[in-house]
Amino acid sequence: MNEDQLYRQTRRSRGARGFSWVLALIVIVAGLSFFIPTNYYVTRPGSAIALGPMIDVEGGKKDETGAFMLTTVRMGEANLAWYVYANMSPDAELMPKELVVSKGEDNEDFVRREQAVMDNSQKIAEAVAFRLAGYDVKIEKEGVWVMGTIEGLPAKKVLKIGDVITAVDGVRTAEAKDLLQALASKKAGDQVEITYTRDGQEGKTMVTLEPLPESKSVGIGVRPDNKQEIVIPKKVTIASQGIGGPSAGLMMTLEILDQLDVAKDLTKGYKIAGTGTISLDGTVGRIGGINHKVIAADKAGAEIFFAPEDTLDATSNYQEALATAKRIGTSMQIVPIKTVKDAIAYLDGQKPKSS
Q: Who has greater pLDDT, 71 or 106?
């Protein structure tokens, strides 16, 4: 081997070693990116799940030729890798952490809140469906629902998200205004006895009132909501499989109603997905991540998608859903819904799907 050949071989050898080092560095950095946290959560398309196998109504029927499906969004804390991916993909979004979990909360708090909201959504769906089917429904005020606790205030140490405050110093608190009234005459440093239920068990605790942030009032530091006991004439079992949040309200209402109405099949053979909260008066409300839910429904083969028409401008859930449907080129029909009766009327107007 002459000197020139030796020189060229040496250069190739050094180049190969240099490339190997660069490749190894890239692999190491990529691996570390999965362990580097960011201050964001990432959301992306979840799944569309048939509600028939999840919901059982006592004395109801399950002879749907189609299916009602709830839709989900996948959400998790974004490490550096997910952060980069979300900035490159049209099917992933980043949300600042403070919009998902409040200051001082952790993932366990978030999960408890989402599950509590889902439980309430299920009960309201049952009430709306039974009323539409002609049954009497009783609604009783149960107490003050703890939907969050404020960092640095006494409730943070003794109460959990999902607890229900039923009394202050032995005086019943049927709803949030009763809690406010019970504390209105108190001052900082006063002690009160809080009676609450957690997972069906009653508990009591003494707390010392403190000034509330950005307020002249004192309190215990909870974000309250009203908890209602909804009594229906038949048993309904919903296996929500750990799914949280309120957005399945509309679709659960339709599935329960379909099982109650033994005279007809609301689905008429179609695969029907959708989303939207449900109120006791049947109003369908806005939800987050509808673009991800449209994608999930399309992948599951849905033919109809109900979307809340919460406003009449371009910011409505319905318009967001339309834009996503156009972007992905789906043939799925996007249907605007303001109330559950709108969804029923639309289905009543469809011809049964031929098999």
A: 71
Contact yes or no for 144/172 (Cβ under 8 A): no
**CA end-to-end span of the chain, whole Å?**
78
DSSP 8-state code for residue 215: S
Active site residue 160: no
Q: Is 138 annotated in the active site?
A: no
Structure tokens that stand for 224 in this block? 């309250």
Strands across the sheet containing 93-96:
93-96, 37-50, 67-79, 271-274, 304-308, 333-337
SS3 for 100? Answer: helix
pLDDT digits (tens, 9 = 90+) for 291-324: 999 999 999 999 999 999 988 777 899 999 999 9
Confidence of residue 257 (pLDDT cuts 50, 70, 90): very high
What letter would DSSP give residue 343?
H
**Catalytic residue from among 240, 268, 293, 316:** 293
Residue of 246, 343, 325, 241 whose CA lies nearest to 286: 246
**Catalytic residue (one of 121, 247, 268, 316):** 247
pLDDT digits (tens, 9 = 90+) for 166-218: 999 999 999 999 999 999 999 999 999 999 999 889 999 999 999 988 788 89
Q: What global pTM score does this model have?
A: 0.80
